[in-house]
Amino acid sequence: MYVHSQTCSIQKAYAEMRIRLKMKKISAIRQMTENPHLNLYHLDALDRKGETFDYYFASRNSKEKLKLFTKGLEPEGIVIYGLTEEAAPRLVLIKEYRYPLDEEIYALPAGLVDAGETPGMAAVREMKEETGLSFLEYTGGDGCFRRPFFMGPGFTDESSCAVYGTVRLEGKRQECEETEEIQVVLADKGEVRRILSEERVSLRGAYLMMQYLHMDAEKPFAFLE
Question: What is the domain range of residue 215?
Answer without folding.
Answer: 77-224
